[in-house]
From TrEMBL:
Secretion signal, residue range per the UniProt entry: none
Keywords: DNA-binding, Transcription, Transcription regulation
UniProt domain HTH gntR-type: residue ranges: 11-78
Taxonomic superkingdom: Bacteria
Gene3D superfamilies in alphabetical order: GntR ligand-binding domain-like, Winged helix-like DNA-binding domain superfamily/Winged helix DNA-binding domain
The protein, known as: GntR family transcriptional regulator
UniProt xrefs under InterPro entries: GntR_C (IPR011711), TF_FadR/GntR_C (IPR008920), Tscrpt_reg_HTH_GntR (IPR000524), WH-like_DNA-bd_sf (IPR036388), WH_DNA-bd_sf (IPR036390)
The keyword Transcription regulation belongs to this UniProt entry's keyword annotation: yes
Organism for this UniProt entry: Amycolatopsis rhabdoformis
SMART domains in UniProt: FCD (SM00895), HTH_GNTR (SM00345)
Length: 229
C-alpha cells in the first residue's frame, strides 16, 4: 500500500512558470520563433534556474518549445504542415466531442455554447481581436468539455493552445466577423435540434474553411495536404 500522502495545497513554482509561459505563447506575447533566455526569464520570474528549466522542459514535452543544440529553447514555428496537422487532429477530437454532446443534454450545452458566440459578437463590435480569439477558443473548449470525456479534454489541451496561435493569423483573412459568428451559430442550431448529420457537416466545413484560409490550396475534407517543402 502507498504511505500516507499529504494533499498538495498549491501549484509548484515550476507549474506556475509553465502556465504563465504557456499563456504567453498562446496569446502571442511570446511569438513563434522567440528564443527563451534562462538568465532573463529567471530574473523576470525572480526564481532560480532549477524550476525555470523544469517548466520549460514541460513545454518542450507539450510541443510548444523546441530545443536547438548549442542554441537553446525557442517557441515553435507553425509551418503549413503543422497548421494542417493541428486542424486534422482538432477535427477528429471535436467530431468525437460533438457526437457525445448530441447524446447529452443538448439544450444545456447549446446555451453554454451560445455564451461564447455572444462574447464573439461583442468582441467584434468592440473591434477587439484578442477578445474575439479568446471567445472563439472558448466555444471549442466548451464543446470538448461537454463531451464528458476526460481523455478528449486531455488530448485537446495542447491542440487548443496551438489553435490560439493560428487564430492570430486567421484574423486577417476575414472581411468581417459575421461569417465567423454565423458558422458557430449554425453548429449550435444543429446540435440543439439533434441533427447529427448537419452538425458534423457544419463542423467539418468550419474546420475546412479555417485551414483553407490559413494554408490556401489545402483541404481536410478532400485530403489535400500541403505540398512537401
Amino acid at each position: 500500500m502507498l504511505p500516507d500522502i499529504e494533499p498538495v495545497s498549491r501549484e509548484s513554482t515550476a507549474a506556475v512558470i509553465a502556465r504563465q509561459l504557456r499563456d504567453a505563447i498562446m496569446t502571442g506575447a511570446l511569438p513563434p520563433g522567440t528564443q527563451l533566455g534562462e538568465t532573463d526569464l529567471a530574473s523576470r520570474f525572480q526564481v532560480s534556474r532549477g524550476p525555470l528549466r523544469e517548466a520549460m522542459q514541460h513545454l518542450v514535452s507539450e510541443g510548444l518549445l523546441r530545443s536547438e543544440r548549442h542554441r537553446g529553447l525557442f517557441v515553435i514555428d507553425l509551418e503549413p504542415d503543422d497548421v494542417f496537422d493541428i486542424y486534422l487532429a482538432r477535427s477528429a477530437v471535436e467530431r468525437a466531442a460533438l457526437l457525445c454532446a448530441l447524446r447529452g443534454d443538448r439544450e444545456r450545452i447549446a446555451v453554454t455554447l451560445e455564451q461564447s458566440v455572444a462574447a464573439m459578437a461583442i468582441a467584434a463590435n468592440d473591434d477587439d481581436p484578442t477578445a474575439l480569439s479568446t471567445a472563439d477558443l472558448a466555444f471549442h473548449e466548451a464543446l470538448i468539455d461537454a463531451s464528458g470525456s476526460k481523455r478528449l479534454v486531455r488530448m485537446a489541451r495542447t491542440l487548443l493552445i496551438e489553435t490560439r496561435m493560428c487564430l492570430t493569423l486567421l484574423q486577417s483573412t476575414y472581411q468581417g466577423v459575421e461569417d465567423r459568428v454565423d458558422e458557430h451559430t449554425r453548429i449550435i442550431d444543429a446540435l440543439r435540434t439533434g441533427d447529427a448529420d448537419a452538425a458534423l457537416r457544419l463542423l467539418d466545413a468550419h474546420m475546412d474553411d479555417a485551414i483553407g484560409r490559413l494554408v490556401p490550396g489545402t483541404s481536410l475534407t478532400e485530403g489535400e495536404a500541403p505540398a512537401p517543402a
